[in-house]
C-alpha cells in the first residue's frame, strides 16, 4: 500500500462519519477526528462522537483524548494527527481524516506557519491583562509594542490575545510569522479530499433532528454531570453546539422547547458558515451533494 490519506469534510450533520463507516465495510481504514470539539472528553453525545460499538469495529483516533480543562489548538492537533496517520500506515490501514473544522484540515493539507510555542506564563498573563483592561486599551498596548493598527482593528478577543502572545514571545508580529513559508507535514499530493455538500434544506432538517436525538440519548445528563464538578461555561468545550442552551434549561432560565429551538437555530447557522467556508477554501477537493455518490466513488478508490 502506498502512503495515501483520505479526507472527508463537510458541515455538521452532512453525513461525514456515516460515510467513513460505510467505507470501512469494504476497505481497511482508520478514522481520525478533525473536529475541534470531538477531541475533548466529557460530551461524547452532544459533540456527536462515534458510538463505542463503532469505535470497536473500526480503529478511531483523536476522539475524547483531551480533558475539557485543557487547551487545544491547530498546532497540537497537527502533532496528534501526524502520529495517527503514520501509525495507520504502519498498520497497513488507509487513514481517513473526518471532520468539519476547516482550519484543521486546511493546515494539514496546506501547511502551517512555524510560530514558536508560547510559554504558559505568557498565555496566562495575556488573558488576564485583556480581562483587566478591556479590548480598546489592549489594542493600544499592541500598537505600542509595534503592531500595525489596521491589522488589529477588527480582531476579536481570541485573535487579539493571540497577537499579543506571539509578539511578547517572539518579538515579531503574528502577521510576520503568517507571511513566512508554511511548514508542510506531508506532501499535499498524498491527500484525496471529499467534501459533502448536501442540499441546504435537507442539511437543516438533519441539524434539527440530530439535536433532538442527542437530548433523547442523554446529552442533558452529560452537561449536568460537568456542571456538578466544574465551572465549565468559560472553557473551550462550552462551545459545543447546544451546551449553553442545556445549561440555561437546567438553570431554569429557558424551557425545554426553547432550548431545542435556540440550539437548533445555532446549529443551522453554524452549518451555513461551514458550507460557505468550504465553498471558498481548499480548491483541490471533490464535491458530492449525496453521500451515496461519494460512497460509489470510494468503492473504486485505489490505495
Topology readout:
Layout: E1 5-10, H1 16-23, E2 29-33, H2 52-57, E3 59-61, H3 74-90, E4 94-99, H4 102-110, H5 120-144, H6 149-152, H7 157-170, H8 174-178, E5 191-196, H9 200-216, H10 219-227, H11 243-250, H12 256-280, E6 286-288, H13 291-298
Parallel strand pairs: 1-4, 1-5, 2-3, 2-4, 5-6
Helix pairs in contact: 1-13, 5-7, 9-12, 10-11, 11-12
Written overview of the protein:
The chain has 2 domains: 224 residues, P-loop containing nucleotide triphosphate hydrolases (Rossmann fold, 3-Layer(aba) Sandwich), CATH 3.40.50.300; 59 residues. Strand 2, helix 2 and strand 3 form a beta-alpha-beta unit. With 303 residues, it is of the alpha/beta class. Strands 3-2-4-1-5-6 form a 6-stranded parallel β-sheet, sandwiched between helices. The longest helix has 25 residues. The radius of gyration is 20 Å and the shape is globular.
CATH level 1 class label of the largest domain? Alpha Beta
| CATH fold annotation of the largest domain | Rossmann fold
| Tally of distinct domains | 2
Distance between the termini: 6 Å
Q: Could you give a short account of the major beta sheet?
A: 6 strands, parallel
The CATH architecture of the largest domain can be named as: 3-Layer(aba) Sandwich
Structural category: alpha/beta
Tertiary shape: globular
Beta-strand content: 5-15%
Mean pLDDT: 93
Could you estimate the helical fraction of the residues in percent?
40-55%
How do the SSEs run, as a string of H and E? Answer: EHEHEHEHHHHHEHHHHEH
Number of strands: 6
- Tell me the Rg in angstroms: 20 Å
Walk across the major sheet and give the strand order: 3-2-4-1-5-6
The low-confidence runs, each spanning 5 or more residues with pLDDT under 50, are none
Number of helices: 13
Task: Give the full name of the CATH homologous superfamily of the largest domain.
Answer: P-loop containing nucleotide triphosphate hydrolases
Amino acid at each position: 500500500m502506498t502512503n495515501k490519506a483520505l479526507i472527508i469534510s463537510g458541515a455538521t450533520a452532512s453525513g461525514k462519519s456515516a460515510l467513513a463507516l460505510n467505507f470501512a465495510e469494504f476497505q481497511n481504514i482508520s478514522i481520525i477526528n478533525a473536529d475541534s470539539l470531538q477531541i475533548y472528553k466529557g460530551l461524547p453525545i452532544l459533540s456527536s462522537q462515534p458510538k463505542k460499538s463503532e469505535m470497536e469495529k473500526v480503529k478511531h483516533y483523536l476522539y475524547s483524548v483531551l480533558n475539557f480543562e485543557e487547551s487545544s489548538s491547530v498546532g497540537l492537533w497537527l502533532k496528534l494527527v501526524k502520529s495517527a496517520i503514520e501509525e495507520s500506515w504502519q498498520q497497513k490501514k488507509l487513514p481517513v481524516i473526518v471532520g468539519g473544522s476547516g482550519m484543521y484540515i486546511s493546515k494539514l493539507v496546506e501547511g502551517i506557519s512555524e510560530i514558536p510555542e508560547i510559554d504558559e506564563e505568557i498565555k496566562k498573563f495575556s488573558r488576564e491583562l485583556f480581562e483587566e483592561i478591556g479590548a480598546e486599551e489592549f489594542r493600544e498596548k499592541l500598537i505600542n509594542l509595534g503592531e500595525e493598527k489596521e491589522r488589529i482593528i477588527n480582531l476579536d478577543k481570541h485573535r487579539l490575545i493571540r497577537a499579543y502572545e506571539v509578539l511578547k514571545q517572539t518579538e515579531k508580529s503574528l502577521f510576520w510569522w503568517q507571511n513566512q513559508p508554511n511548514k508542510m507535514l506531508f506532501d499535499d499530493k498524498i491527500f484525496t479530499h471529499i467534501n459533502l455538500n448536501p442540499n441546504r434544506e435537507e442539511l437543516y432538517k438533519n441539524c434539527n433532528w440530530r439535536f433532538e436525538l442527542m437530548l433523547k440519548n442523554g446529552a442533558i445528563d452529560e452537561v449536568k454531570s460537568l456542571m456538578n464538578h466544574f465551572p465549565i461555561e468559560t472553557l473551550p468545550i462550552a462551545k459545543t453546539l447546544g451546551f449553553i442552551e442545556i445549561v440555561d434549561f437546567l438553570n431554569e432560565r429557558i424551557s425545554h422547547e426553547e432550548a431545542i429551538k435556540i440550539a437548533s437555530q445555532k446549529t443551522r447557522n453554524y452549518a451555513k458558515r461551514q458550507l460557505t467556508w468550504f465553498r471558498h477554501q481548499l480548491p483541490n477537493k471533490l464535491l458530492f451533494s449525496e453521500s451515496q455518490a461519494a460512497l460509489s466513488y470510494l468503492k473504486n478508490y485505489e490505495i
